[in-house]
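From the shared-data thread, chain only:
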Amino acid sequence: MKPLYFVPFSSLVFVAVVGAFEACSSSSSSNGAALADQDAASVNDTGTSTSGPVQCGAPPFVNLGIVVEAAGTSDAGTRIGGATLTSPLCPDASFTSDDDGGIVGLVSQNVAFYGRFNAPGYAPTLSPQEQFATDSPPVTIALPPSLFTVIVPNYDKTKPLILVDVRLDTGTNHDGGANCNDPSGVSFSVDGHPEAQITYYMGGAIPSPISGGMATSSGLASIGGLDVSSSPVTITGTKTGCTISFQKNGSTGKIPMEDAYVSIAAAYLRD
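Structure, as tokens:
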């Protein structure tokens, strides 16, 4: 992939986000095509430019890169050109992904931030809150299609919605133990917010909501009923004998919310 450079609108914004919401397979959490995959790296350059790297925030900076992709549709994995990205860390800036869905740049070191993504045909999406101390490998975000919100019970397009996906955290945190090798049985609560409305889904070409109070093998859940004034929130996941964490790599574990946006969150299932 060729290096990607952009002309500033004000001062160009860059955010590192994670994500892949794969609604096309009931095994999305075990095959790597999950809602928030911080290990998915597909940008080849480091985010520097001979003409000066794009910047978000104040120095010192770390190098970051991103590819914006489609998810949960027949064109899942297709890179999205023309996706706009903004961040509260750079309130006066906006930029657009190129034809390869790519963005590269610099973001303030050790400063928490998140990004907003908008693209025609896709749900307005927020990344989780991130914070990086050093240069980060490139990451990928896959935007859920606008039609996904149709299946969410009592969805209000003017309110925030959180979309959670359970991922198996392989390596030192996960040795493949049988009980912790399956998202089924994971349940969620929003810390300090008993009013949260949590729905779990069966997998399939179109995920379908269920009446039960635990995740199925799809590992998918949505959380509504929250007021944007409580942003950011933290989520607790539970499963007997397992540990569930929303922190990995640069993720702080905090989920920002904005009205009319879908916030993506990865829950890492560990032994």
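The longest strand covers residues 61-70.
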